[in-house]
Amino acid sequence: MRDDMSGFSKKAELEKDEYYTSPEGYIIFTEKYLLKRGYCCKNSCKHCPYDYDRNTGRIKLNK
Predict the structure, then answer these.
(1) Predicted local distance difference test score (pLDDT) of residue 19
(2) What global pTM score does this model have?
(3) Distant-in-sequence, close-in-space partners of 61: CB < 8 Å, separation ≥ 6
(4) Can you spell out the DSSP letters for 27-53?
(5) 3-class DSSP state for residue 3?
(6) What is the pLDDT of residues 9-59, one digit of tens each?
(7) Rg (Cα) of the chain, in Å, rounded?
(8) Going by C-beta distance under 8 Å and a sequence separation of 6 or more, which residues neighbour residue 62?
(9) Model confidence at 62, in pLDDT bands (50, 70, 90)?
(10) Residue with the larger pLDDT of the pair 51 and 62
(11) Which listed residue, 39, 53, 55, 61, has the most CB atoms within 10 A of its CB?
(12) Is residue 46 a contact partner of residue 28, using CB atoms and an 8 Å limit?
């Protein structure tokens, strides 16, 4: 049995321009991936194309 979770990773299914890795090792999704996903998760993602405002709880679709 493997100790790491790499066998469960969906990272291999992502295209290279849909994410990048931060210096701390976190996966950061790009606007391309977030649009492809098709909905806002309301977590104020760094590249959120839906312009979610955490203060008001509203999504402004500008596209």
Answers:
(1) 93
(2) 0.68
(3) 50, 51
(4) EEE-HHHHHHHTS--SS--TT-TT-EE
(5) coil
(6) 666 688 989 999 999 999 999 999 999 999 999 988 899 998 888 888 888
(7) 14
(8) 51
(9) low
(10) 51
(11) 53
(12) yes
How far apart CA 34 and CA 5 sit, in angstroms, is 24
What's the residue count for the chain?
63
Task: Say if residue 8's pLDDT is above 80.
Answer: no
Q: Which two tokens stand for residue 34?
A: 């977030």
Contact yes or no for 49/63 (Cβ under 8 A): yes
The whole-angstrom separation of Cα 8 and Cα 5 is 6
- State both tokens at 40: 């806002």
Residue pointed to by tokens 């290279």: 16
